[in-house]
Design a protein that fits this description.
1 helix; disordered N terminus; Lipocalin; mainly beta; elongated
Length: 196
């Protein structure tokens, strides 16, 4: 017996840069943003690698007349992070575990302060974009850069690696430091922009 293939909504492929010139405002209705954290330490088996959904975010992408992005701005509500999944732990996450994780993120890590990114430069062609700018987390602003892929469907995707200590964030620890969150976390974004 063969499983039926999941039906996907058809997409219209467009050759070349498919984006409309102008400023496009997108958010959760147009794509996904996730944060991935990884555990380490002697007691890491009792912890989990986490996948967190970000439900409150908005991006503004300005596209030039040549149909390539010229600026990217991002605003994130730090209290909108929700635990989607805990991987590799010895037992599944309970509702209490999820509530405790959210509380720790809010009170000890991000402290409820807005997360913002403002690009200084967007360069690249043929589907690969390099973005450099300023990222503000937990009240600290630092330079940050990442790469985005732009496909022929007008979809932007990429992953930004953040080293928490560079923003004066102390990675979460438990069990007297035997369990801790790795300093480097990843933010993954996939969003579809309006195309011809």
């Amino acid at each position: 017996m063969t499983a039926k293939a999941k039906r996907r909504r058809p997409r219209t492929k467009i050759a070349g840069m498919p984006l409309h010139p102008g400023t496009h405002v997108v958010g959760p209705e147009s794509g996904t943003m996730q944060v991935m954290t990884y555990r380490e330490g002697m007691a890491q088996k009792v912890g989990h690698d986490l996948v967190l959904d970000v439900s409150g975010w908005q991006a503004r992408v300005t596209v030039g007349e040549d149909r390539a992005p010229t600026t990217i701005e991002l605003d994130v509500d730090p209290r909108s992070l929700q635990v989607r999944e805990g991987k590799h732990g010895v037992k599944p996450l309970s509702d209490g575990d999820r509530d405790e994780i959210r509380k720790n993120i809010d009170e000890k890590v991000l402290r409820g302060q807005p997360i913002e990114f403002r690009s200084r430069e967007v360069s690249g062609r043929e589907g690969a974009l390099k973005v450099n700018g300023e990222l503000t987390i937990a009240g600290q602003t630092r330079p940050a850069g990442f790469e985005l892929e732009l496909n022929d469907y007008g979809e932007l995707s990429g992953t930004l690696t953040i080293v928490q200590s560079q923003w004066d964030i102390k990675p979460y620890r438990a069990l007297m430091g035997a369990l801790k969150v790795r300093d480097a976390v990843e933010i993954a974004l996939e969003v579809r922009l309006p195309a011809d």
